[in-house]
């Protein structure tokens, strides 16, 4: 593909699949461009594996038989599908795999966008170690400021000899040759005890607060609703500690664990199975875009800690979508309860949407807010 073709194709990519007009943000970065400039001619003889392709820029550029895109994000997969269609490419030209799916054997080429989470990178490199060969072309790319000595050491420790390129437009490439270095086994799932309970929490590599309970979740767990007889959603569930607490405090409730991360939902399921196996029958686990597909006027409570970042961009569009979907799906008298940093001013957003908002609890850093769906 020529640079002109690449530019034309990239200019038709959308960043958010559900927000074409609202988002002026570019759906690729200089690391994508740098990577595509250096992958060489089209390869044959084995699969091409693409990791962490946020909005499908790499997938659209190399689409064809035997191309696999591996992502932990349901939304990233939808963006890739939409951008393939937008560029008149067959969706079958890129097979989408979630982050826990088995990888195709003996790939000819591996393209990696270096993720922000070092634990996720380690999990991906360990998975690659099982399928790559010394002949596999392995190239990673990322922002120069995000590629540290520890990043290069991880490639070298798990896969083999590693070098890095000069910086170009503040991006850098990593070249690795597989040599099967000796490597000690390591559990890619982190575990830690949940304070105040006998629960042992399991976290897959890409789940927030992988090493222990974060202070926002701790505060939220102390201020959750009790004795609800109905349906509760742990929205943006992460490892599921909020849903686990809701299960314990609402023994008659059905609890839904919802996140757009495959590893988050898998962690939530594992935590219910290992800590509350008798409650598994009243749980549902779904990888989804917020509450898309849920029926209106049904839920009794939605609990969430809204994220305020999309990749490297600070944005409130995710919180707004969570609030809007919650209002649509709650029955009259049902509540949205959230925890957030005090400076985010969710109070006025919730009051504008619901017509009411009360402060349940507050401390120096966080606030817990509650809005009720009224007629």
Would you spell out the secondary-structure blueprint of this structure?
Elements lengths: L2 H8 L19 H8 L10 E4 L5 H6 L4 E5 L2 H13 L8 E4 L10 E5 L4 H12 L7 E7 L5 H10 L3 E3 L6 E6 L13 E4 L6 E4 L11 H7 L9 E5 L5 H9 L4 E6 L2 H14 L7 E5 L11 E6 L4 E2 L2 E2 L2 H13 E12 L4 H9 L3 E5 L3 E7 L3
Parallel strand pairs: 1-2, 1-4, 2-3, 4-5, 10-11, 10-13, 11-12, 13-16
Antiparallel strand pairs: 5-7, 6-7, 8-9, 14-15, 16-18, 17-18
Helix pairs in contact: 5-6, 10-11
What kind of sheet is the major sheet?
7 strands, mixed
The average pLDDT is: 90
Rg over alpha carbons: 22 Å
Low-confidence stretches: 1-11, 16-24
The ordered string of helix (H) and strand (E) elements is: HHEHEHEEHEHEEEEHEHEHEEEEHEHEE
For the termini, the CA-CA separation is 57 Å
Helix content: 25-40%
Class by alpha and beta content? alpha/beta
Number of helices: 11
Strand order across the biggest sheet? 3-2-1-4-5-7-6
Shape: globular
The count of DSSP E runs of length 2 or more, i.e. the number of strands, is 18
Residue fraction in strands: 15-25%
């Amino acid at each position: 593909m020529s640079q002109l073709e690449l530019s034309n194709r990239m200019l038709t990519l959308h960043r958010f699949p559900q927000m074409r007009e609202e988002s002026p943000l570019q759906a690729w970065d200089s690391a994508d461009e740098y990577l595509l400039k250096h992958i060489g001619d089209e390869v044959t003889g084995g699969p091409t594996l693409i990791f962490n392709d946020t909005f499908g820029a790499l997938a659209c550029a190399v689409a064809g038989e035997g191309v696999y895109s591996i992502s932990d994000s349901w939304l990233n997969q939808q963006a890739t599908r939409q951008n393939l269609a937008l560029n008149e490419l067959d969706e079958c030209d890129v097979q989408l795999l979630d982050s826990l799916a088995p990888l195709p054997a003996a790939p000819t080429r591996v393209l990696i966008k270096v993720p922000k989470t070092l634990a996720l990178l380690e999990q991906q490199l360990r998975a690659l170690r099982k399928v790559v060969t010394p002949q596999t072309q392995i190239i990673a790319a990322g922002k120069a400021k995000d590629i540290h000595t520890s990043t290069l050491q991880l490639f070298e420790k798990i896969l083999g000899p590693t070098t890095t390129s000069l910086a170009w437009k503040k991006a850098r490439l990593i070249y690795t040759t597989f040599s099967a270095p000796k490597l000690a086994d390591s559990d890619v799932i982190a575990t830690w005890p949940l304070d105040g309970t006998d629960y042992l929490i399991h976290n897959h590599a890409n789940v927030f607060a992988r090493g222990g309970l974060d202070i926002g979740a701790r505060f939220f767990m102390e201020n959750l609703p009790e004795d609800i007889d109905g349906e509760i959603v742990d929205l943006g569930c992460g490892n599921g500690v909020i849903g686990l607490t809701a299960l314990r405090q609402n023994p008659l409730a059905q609890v839904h664990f919802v996140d757009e991360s495959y590893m988050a939902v898998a962690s939530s399921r594992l935590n219910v199975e290992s800590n509350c196996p008798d409650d598994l029958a009243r749980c549902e686990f779904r990888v989804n875009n917020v509450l898309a597909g849920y029926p209106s006027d049904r839920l009794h409570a939605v609990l969430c800690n809204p994220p305020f970042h999309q990749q490297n961009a600070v944005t409130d569009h995710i919180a707004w979508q969570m609030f809007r979907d919650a209002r649509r799906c709650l029955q009259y008298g049902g509540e949205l309860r959230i925890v957030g940093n005090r400076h985010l001013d969710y109070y006025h957003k919730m009051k504008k949407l619901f017509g009411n908002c009360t402060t349940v609890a507050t401390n120096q850093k966080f606030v817990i807010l509650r809005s009720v769906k009224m007629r």
